Each structure stands twice: as C-alpha cells, then as structure tokens.
Amino acid sequence: MKHEQVPGDAIVIRGARQNNLKHLNLAIPTGELVVVTGVSGSGKSSLVFDTLYAEGQRRYVETFSPYARQFLDRMDKPQVDSVEGIPPAIAIDQTNPVRTSRSTVGTMTELNDHLKLLYARGAKLHCRGCGKPVVRDTPTSIFESLREKSAGRLLITFPVPIPKNFTEKEVEELLQRQGYTRLHSRSKSLLEVVQDRVRVTPEDRARVTEALESALKFGQGKVNIYEQKSGSDPDFLVHKYSSDLHCADCDIHYSEPTPAMFSFNSPLGACETCRGFGRVIGVDFGLVVPDEEKPLREGAVRPWQTASFKECQDDLEKYAKKRKIPLDTPWNQLDEKQRTWVLEGEPEWVSWRKSWPGVWYGVRRFFKWLESKAYKMHIRVLLSKYRAYTECVACHGTRLKPEGLLWKLDGSSIHDLMLQPISQTRGFFDKLDFSDEATDLLLKEIRTRLNYLCDVGLGYLTLDRQSRTLSGGEVQRINLTTALGTSLVNTLFVLDEPSIGLHPRDMGRVIEVMKRLRDAGNTLVVVEHDPQIMLAADRILDMGPGPGERGGEIVFFGPAEKLRDESTLTAEYLSGRKRAAEPHAPARPRDFLEVLGAAEHNLKSIDVRIPLERLVCVTGVSGSGKSTLVQDVLYPAVLKSKGKPTEAPGAHRALRGASKVSGVVMVDQSPIGKTTRSNPASYVGAFDEIRVLFSKTPTAKERRYTPGTFSFNSGNGRCPACSGCGF
C-alpha cells in the first residue's frame, strides 16, 4: 500500500480494479478533507465516483425495503475486493440534470418555497387602481383615522345594493323595519343609507364606534364617511373604509393571500397566458428583418424574398407608396410608426374577406395566414425559421398573475426580489423585521440560505435565473449550499472540481464551506486540480503516473506540504519547477469581430473587439458579465446575423465583422450523449469510416456485409440479446 499508516477510523479499500485502476489498496481517514488529483485519465473518477461513491450509495440504498428500493437509482457494484468503514455517500458533481425552464435558482435552492410562505404571511397588499395600501379596517382603526383627518360633524353611511329580484321600494321597506329611515343618495342599483351623524371627539368614542360597527355589519364590510360642508352639496369630502381586503376608493375586492398565489408552478399563481414560463413562442421580428441596414425595396423583410411570396413584396411596395412610407431608407432609420405599419399592418383591418384589398395586412397577419396552412409540411418548416420564444405580453416575464405582484414587502414584490442579485437580496432581508415569531423563524431560514449562497461565491446570480443556463460549477456549488443547509453529519461527500468557473478571489469561500462540512463530522473526497484547494486539504492523493493504461496507480498519498518534494508530474507543476507556457508569441491579428454597446444584465454599454483566428480568453471575477457577453450577446447575435433561429440577443447597439466568420458553435458543459450506446468515437463520426473499412474486406464482400452490419446501433449489426448496449 503506497500510503502512510492512518490512525483511527478510516475507509479501507482493497483490490480496486474499476476501469484502469490496478488493484489499489488504500485507507482514507474519515473526518478529513482529501483532494484526489492527477493527470486526465489517471483514474481519479474511477476511484472516487465509480468505486467509493458507488459502493457507499449502493450499501445505503440496500438498507431500504424492496418496495422503497424500486423508486431509487441503484448503482452497479464496483469491481473491488472489499470496502470497509464506508459511511452513506452523497455525490455533488458537475452535471446539470435540469432541462425544464420552470426550474430556477430560487426553486433549486428551495428559497422560492420560503419566500411564498413569507409573502402569504407578512406582505402588504397595494391596490392595482390607486396604488394605496389595502388594509382591513376596524371600528377602532377608522375612529383613529377620522380623528387625524377631520374635526367637524361627520355623516356615517353604508351602501345597500338592490338585488335583481327586489324593487327599490321593497328594499326601503325592509330597511325601515330595521329602523333605517334616512337615505343619503340613491341610484338604480344602490341605496346609501344614513347610520348616524356624529362628531369625532374622545367623549363620543363609544357612540362613533357603535355606529361604525352597525354600518360595517349592514353594509357587508363597507362604510362611507361624509364630511358635512353645506347640507346636500355634492362637493362634500368622502372617506371610504372596508373591513375586507377591499379598496374602498376604487371599489375593487381582493382574495385572501395563499402561498400558491406567489408560485409560478401552481395554476393558482401562474400567468394564464404563458402558464408560468414567462415566455411564449411567436414570430421573432429580429429573424424576419435580420439585416437592419437594408431598405424595404432591397429585401429588408426576408420571408418575402422567395419566388413563393414575391407577391407580398409587391404588395408592400405598392401600399408603402400610397402611405408615403420610404422604400429606400435603411430599416434602422425608419421611425417607430413606420416600422409598426410594416410589421403590424393598419389598425382598420377587419378580415381578409372584408379588408383586402384596400387595407395593408402587415407581417404579423401574413404569419397568421400562414398558420392556417400549417397542415402542409413546407409551411411548418418555413414557420419554424421565423419563430422564437419572446417575453409574455400579459405578465411581462414575471410568470405570475397580476394579483400576486400587488403584495409587497417593504415596497418590493416577490418578482422584484427575484430580479436582484442574491447579494442584494441578502441585504434586503437583513433589514426586515417581524414581531410575529413564526414569520421570524421563516426569515431566519431565508437569511441562512442566502448567506450560504454568498459564501460559495454565487452572490451574483439572481433567483429568477433558469437552472438549465447554469454552468456545471455553479450547479455544484448550489448543491453544496443545500448540503450545508441540511446539517448532515457522519456522511461521505464526493465532489467533482467545485472550483470550475470560479475566480481565484472567491476560492477561499468554497474552501471555508468545505471545511465547515468537514468540521461538522463529515468526510470530503474532492477531485480537484486547483492549487488553492489542494494546499488547503488535509491530505492529497495523487493518481498516475500517466493517463489510461499508464495510470491507475497511487503515486503519492499524504499531507499537501510533502507533495512539493516528490518527483510526480503534479508535484513538478505545483512546486513551479515546470510551467505551461506558449512557446512563441503569435502574429498580430488582422480581422476582428466587434460587439458595440453591449448592455445586457450588468454590462455597462461596452464595446468589445475580438481578434479572429486566435484563441481568445474572456476572464474576470464571478458575476462580472463574462457569460452575459459571450452566451447572451455575442453567440445569439452572430446566429441572428446568419439568419438562423435563436433567442433574442442581449441588448447591444451593433455587431460588426460577422461576415468574416462562416458560423458559430456553442461548446458548453452539457452532456453530449443521450443514450448508453453513445461513445466518443460514434459521436465524432470516426466509427462511420471504420465500419466502411470493415465492409470492404474480402470476407465482408463475400458475405455481402454492409457498413450497418458492423454497427451496434442498427438492427442488422447489434446483438439481439442486449440491443447493442453490451449489458
């Protein structure tokens, strides 16, 4: 065993031979932070994930009943002689399992669940008509309000609606029987009945309160107070109150708040138009007019430049002349009214039968007409080229019904908090205070989770950010905060490069979180290459000496400070004896791709000049705008310039030099294989050529074999027992 003797409790592995591991014997002490490093392909993941985690997870799952086990993922038994002293294992890796756009950072961290409970308990309602706070009035609160507003004589009245199956006279008779003989005003559907005339003084408090109680009772929670000025003068001042969630001034009634009202994953709270997605699929005018430098006559409207729809281009030119719309002015120089005329058509439009010819239909109605022909395949293909997800016009991307946004905490709706960076949201909740003990407990849990997210360097994310757009490193750090929030002890945590995508400035935060997990009594085994994390570990396990067949052995296992003196490849680079450097300086670039005025998210209208035919690195601290510039602005902008379907590019003024590149490809961390039969050789197409070579051999020709005969993905070549899976 190539490791030092470890005292006390330890996880003992004997005879590990998974993948390229060469019968490893190893004892990992529990309650420590152990970093596993080594060259790519040396067997780090085979040891940590395929052996250690797989065995810990398998044994834990086997403690459940057969009925419970059928709902859990079961891992294959690793190729190892024995593993002793292994605690239950949790893997926090880089894979982002989320594919639905319903999942956000808020739902992933369970902060949304806490926020909707907090808003249902502690938020204040603001009227959608006048914007004033809507509160439940009581006789006591009304009396105090009237003392501040008025000192003269007041008339207390309550409204009585006239039911459809009663006449006004019958309602009056019923009121008279109960002692109400005076009316303040009347209309076809409403009578306003006088309850009492009073002065708001401390001596009359009991009388005023009693009158208000009766008025609220008979007025079904509504009461109107008139300041006496000059008899029946219609210009008197009126104060309206209500004991329900009802704005007395606007006469709008509101429903009771429930947690589901603040959730876009619930039909009670989700916007009815987009069903809680925040976006709807429709015509993207950015794809319809991809080149804004072109005038209308030269083909600014792209779909009308084919022979099939040339007639529409002729119609455009004909009606533009009649309406004095310039045909030779570039699209980006037309005013808003002229662009709207081209895209939306004329407001006088009724239907094709009644309005055409004579009224201009516009681009949008052209696409609506196309949708009526969508049973034809070529029309569906055409529509797909000009469709994209656009912001929902009903909820404006908030995902919620309007009622959910009227409830506010300290002036902020739940969506306002979702749009703020987590670091700002934390500051907002630090200032909040509730006298209610249950709400305070909820607030404490929210603060704890926000602090954990900031501790691992994710303070720049917003709670509204879709989970599927997060990098592998960000997902891993979110899962790390969830693990920290659960307060687990005596557990094995297996991490896969938590430093990915993190600036060195923020690395100390992640190290602190891992040490906090370790100090709680957990064991951490981390696959990592970052020197900061390696040097902070209790022990380093160096795998090697090379990749593949030349790897699978332990070349060093011990404290980090002793590794520098070893002769392993990792030690050579960690000590600085070897460096990764460019052998010669590259020539000066000639062509550039320019993004002007990029202003999406936190970008401050920046101009960026990217040299072509060079390896260009975009770096900066976490949350500085790197992904926004590259993924949200540059990538979709180049796609759009090539006329390919894409989501709307982030805010920018112009893109120059796109004609100098033939295309753009996004290479991210999402997994490429969707089936168990997929492997690197089949993905890059190497197997296609290999199969062709095999099909040209003399024996294959003799037996009339085709390339498909040598494929485990086709019916002729694959094994009938396992369908080409191999297991």
Helix and strand arrangement:
Blueprint: E1 10-16, E2 24-29, E3 33-38, H1 44-61, H2 66-69, E4 82-84, E5 89-92, H3 105-108, H4 111-122, E6 124-126, E7 133-134, H5 139-149, E8 153-161, H6 168-177, E9 183-186, E10 190-199, H7 205-218, E11 222-227, E12 238-242, E13 246-247, E14 252-253, E15 279-283, H8 285-288, H9 310-322, H10 336-344, H11 352-355, H12 362-371, H13 377-385, E16 387-391, E17 407-408, H14 414-419, H15 422-431, H16 437-455, H17 472-486, E18 492-496, H18 507-519, E19 523-527, H19 531-536, E20 539-544, E21 553-558, H20 560-563, H21 569-574, E22 592-598, E23 606-611, H22 626-641, E24 654-656, H23 680-683, H24 686-695, H25 698-702
Parallel strand pairs: 3-19, 3-20, 5-18, 18-19
Antiparallel strand pairs: 1-2, 1-4, 6-7, 6-17, 8-10, 8-11, 9-10, 11-12, 13-14, 15-16, 20-21, 22-23, 22-24
Helix pairs in contact: 4-16, 5-7, 10-12, 15-16, 16-17, 17-18
Architecture overview:
The chain has 727 residues and is an alpha+beta fold. Helices cover 32% and strands 16% of the residues. Strands 5-18-19-3-20-21 form a six-stranded mixed sheet. It has a five-stranded antiparallel sheet with strand order 9-10-8-11-12. Helix 18 (507-519) links the parallel strand 18 (492-496) and strand 19. Helix 15 (422-431) packs antiparallel against helix 16 and helix 17 runs parallel beside helix 18. It is globular and about 105 Å long. The chain starts with 9 loop residues before the first strand and ends in a 25-residue tail after the last helix. The model has no long low-confidence stretch (mean pLDDT 83).
